[in-house]
C-alpha cells in the first residue's frame, strides 16, 4: 500500500515532514462526518504521525500516503462544523489546501443505496424562520434555496475517475446542503409544523438536485470565497465531494451496514489517490507547488 520512504534521501525528507506534521495538519485533507469512517480510512495510510481528538469532537489523523502528507478530519454533522473546520484549518496551514469531503447522503434521483454521488455543485437549503413567525400571513417560502456553487473541476474529475473503480454506479449532479436532517431535507412528521411537503420536488426542479446532505455547500462556498496569496490571486482552497448513498428517499430503502463498511474501505484509495494526483509532492511536501499558478497563502 503506497511507497514508503526507504532511501537515505527519502528518510531525511520524511523526518523533516514528520517534525512539521507533529504541529500541523497537512495541505491535502479528507473530511468526513463520522469518526469511525475516519479511523477505517486511516488504516490505509502508510504511517500515522499525529492523532488528536478535540473536546468539541473533531478527530484529526495525519500521516503519510505514498510519501505524501495527508490528513483525515472527522467533523461531526452540519454546516457550522464544516465552517469551523475549514476556517481553523486555513488559519494554521500554510500554502494551498485541497479538501475532499467523503460523506453520505440521501438520494433523490435514481441512485440507490451503495451508489456514489459526485457533487458537481452544491446549494444551501435553509429554513426561513420568518415564514414560520408569519405563517398566518404566508409570507415568502418556508425554505430558501441558494444558488449553485461549483466544486473544483479538476479535483472532481480525479475523484470521479477513482470512484468508477469502487463498484456501484457513479452519478454526478447538484447536492442540496440542508441545515437539518429533518425539516429542510423534506422528512415529514407530525411533531412540528415543518411545511416541507413539496421541498424535495422543489430541490429537484429548481436546482436539479440529485442528493441531500448537510455540509457540501459550506465547503464549496468557503473554497470559492477563500483568498489567495494576494487578493488578486486565485482562491487558496480547492474542494470536491463524493457521497455514498445511504438512503433512497423515494423508495425508503437503506444501505446495509456491511455494504457501507466495504465501500468505505474500497473508496479510500480512490479518495487518497485523487488528492495526491491533484497536488503532487514538491519541496518535501512542506509547501506544495511553490510559485505555481495556484498559489496559496
Ligand atoms: C447525517 O446522518 C450526516 O450524514 C451525512 C450528512 O451530511 C450528515 O452529516 O454526512 P456524513 O456521513 O459525512 O456525516
Ligand atoms: N445524510 C443526510 O444528511 N441525509 C440522508 O438522507 C442520508 C445521509
From TrEMBL:
It comes from the Eukaryota. This is Uncharacterized protein.
Amino acid at each position: 500500500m503506497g511507497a514508503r520512504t526507504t532511501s537515505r534521501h527519502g528518510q531525511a525528507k520524511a523526518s523533516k515532514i514528520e517534525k512539521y506534521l507533529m504541529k500541523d495538519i497537512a495541505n491535502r485533507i479528507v473530511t468526513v462526518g463520522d469518526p469511525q469512517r475516519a479511523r477505517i480510512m486511516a488504516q490505509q495510510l502508510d504511517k500515522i504521525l499525529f492523532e488528536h481528538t478535540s473536546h468539541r469532537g473533531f478527530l484529526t489523523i495525519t500521516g503519510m500516503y505514498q510519501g505524501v502528507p495527508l490528513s483525515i478530519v472527522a467533523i461531526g454533522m452540519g454546516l457550522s462544523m464544516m465552517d469551523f473546520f475549514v476556517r481553523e484549518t486555513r488559519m494554521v496551514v500554510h500554502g494551498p489546501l485541497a479538501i475532499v469531503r467523503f460523506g453520505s447522503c440521501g438520494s433523490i434521483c435514481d441512485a440507490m443505496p451503495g451508489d456514489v454521488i459526485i457533487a458537481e455543485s452544491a446549494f444551501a437549503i435553509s429554513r426561513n424562520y420568518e415564514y414560520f413567525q408569519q405563517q398566518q400571513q404566508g409570507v415568502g417560502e418556508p425554505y430558501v434555496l441558494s444558488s449553485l456553487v461549483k466544486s473544483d473541476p479538476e479535483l472532481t474529475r480525479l475523484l470521479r475517475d477513482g470512484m468508477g473503480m469502487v463498484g456501484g454506479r457513479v452519478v454526478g449532479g447538484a447536492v442540496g446542503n440542508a441545515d437539518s436532517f429533518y425539516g429542510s431535507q423534506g422528512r415529514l412528521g407530525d411533531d412540528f409544523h415543518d411545511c416541507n411537503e413539496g421541498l424535495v420536488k422543489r430541490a429537484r426542479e429548481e436546482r436539479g438536485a440529485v442528493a441531500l446532505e448537510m455540509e457540501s455547500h459550506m465547503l464549496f462556498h468557503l473554497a470559492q470565497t477563500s483568498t489567495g496569496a494576494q487578493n488578486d490571486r486565485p482562491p487558496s482552497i480547492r474542494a470536491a465531494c463524493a457521497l455514498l448513498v445511504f438512503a433512497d428517499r423515494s423508495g425508503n430503502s437503506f444501505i446495509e451496514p456491511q455494504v457501507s463498511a466495504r465501500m468505505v474501505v474500497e473508496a479510500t484509495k480512490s479518495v487518497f489517490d485523487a488528492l495526491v494526483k491533484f497536488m503532487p509532492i514538491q519541496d518535501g511536501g512542506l509547501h506544495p507547488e511553490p510559485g505555481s499558478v495556484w498559489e496559496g497563502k
